[in-house]
Amino acid sequence: MRYLNSKIYLLSLLLLFTTACNRSNDSLYQKETEIFNRYLKTTRLAINKDSTYLFICTPGSACVGCNQHLFNLFMNVKDGNTFLLTSSPENFSTSPELKSRIYFDSTGKLDRINLPIRNASVVFYKQGEISGIVSVNPNAPDSIDYNISEWMKTGK
User: Which one of 26, 117, 135, 149 is most buried, by most CB atoms within 10 A?
Assistant: First the structure.
């Protein structure tokens, strides 16, 4: 009887461990995805949940040089699934085709959203879920370029 109880205990422990592991693999950014999806609903951007997107986020609280670096990258990306979300007070001049991919957050929600994007950041978004968030390093702003180019090659 004691042997049976220890087997049941071990089996229960194994089942509990397996369930916990599977739950953590559901989505690494599950909470962040829920928050970001609510934010996206407040924008005028037409987002298809089945597609892949790159969101360049430049909050007003970010360093100006970091925002400028990501804005310059945005200007050079011709991919229609790359969007700029900004509440930065700088006035950026853009072409008409780029303006359709820019959301200017005049409410400042981008600065208050509960996501790790206090500095200029990139949100990698695939099929309705965040798959990564990377912020610009103010001491080496171009270090984010590699992450973006790899995503453009393989993230889709």
Answer: 117
